[in-house]
């Protein structure tokens, strides 16, 4: 073999080696990219599906569906106008007045009027005395002592209370007397803040 042919052969051999190394590099890079795509795609897909469904995750990983958080109409509350928290009175006939915020008060036993707003809530007040009832999802608010139903849609009442200390709370129930929830949490029922009064002799 002549010198020129040897030189040409060596050049081709070196080029082939470089091409082989380049091919290995490209294959390796592609494999890494494919592996990364396989690993990351499910997470991105899950996040995208969650976003499209309008859902988010709470801090403990539970699904949470936000309901128009920027709409002031979605904020709900019930509260005592009277008596005031901390009242001490010697009048055993105690006057009660209830208030509500962004809630339609309607009688029990009647279907609420139609309203397409996703945050619309309709119900009536229940007065709970001395924690005789705690709202749960298991059934209707019971008819029993110290659980007063205002199924006619009443917002005022005068109730005779014997001398003693009392814990008072309002619970909103629907037309079937079932406590109304506004969130996914177990305790997200529409209730008032508990207040405390005392009736003296």
TrEMBL record:
One Pfam family of this chain: DUF4399
Residue ranges constituting the DUF4399 domain according to the UniProt record: 100-183
Residues making up the signal peptide according to the UniProt record: 1-34
Keywords, alphabetical: Signal
Recorded superkingdom: Bacteria
Protein name per Swiss-Prot or TrEMBL: Rod shape-determining protein RodA
